[in-house]
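Example (one chain per record):
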Amino acid sequence: MNSSKPRFSTGEAKGQLVVIDMQRVFREAGVWHIPRYDDAARTIARLTSAGFQPITTRFVPDPAEPGSWSTYYDRWPSMRRDPADHIWDLMLPDVDARSSIDLPTFTKWGEALADRIPVGEELILTGVATDCCVLATALGAADAGRYVTVVEDACAGQSDTAQDQALNLMQLLSPMINVVKSEILLSSLL
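Predicted structure:
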């Protein structure tokens, strides 16, 4: 992956850390299990302990299943759960996640994030799944004129292959989207 430095100045964390969908449903064994979830969670905890204040998001289904969502849930009928079910709870050990942006979509880019991250500013994306919700959020934010840094070891995909493919795809959109390792991001704070 790219080893370039993030956009912000050394000595301060100027990008906004966004933690995508680190929820019980993706951590526990089941149809949506993400194998390297715990590895990503540990890296996210290192970023927050270094001073990055996270905005967290949650995928929460819309019981109405509008349009193509009904056929999506036909594929995953066991995920037709009440939005209040604990399966949708955040699972972020050692990370203060007081409130989250909850959306029934893959992308978490929308009005709530746009209000917190002005045009021309940087999102630092972490979370799961790299090949779904992280990718969708990165594309939406870049389209909306935000710089995006994806922290590859603070993300996890449905498989190692899917992870690599998604990261490679996003890197093609540099300089709008850059992919870095957490050590590069953390060293920029020194």
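Caption: Residues 16-59+87-187 form a domain with the Rossmann fold fold (CATH 3.40.50.850).
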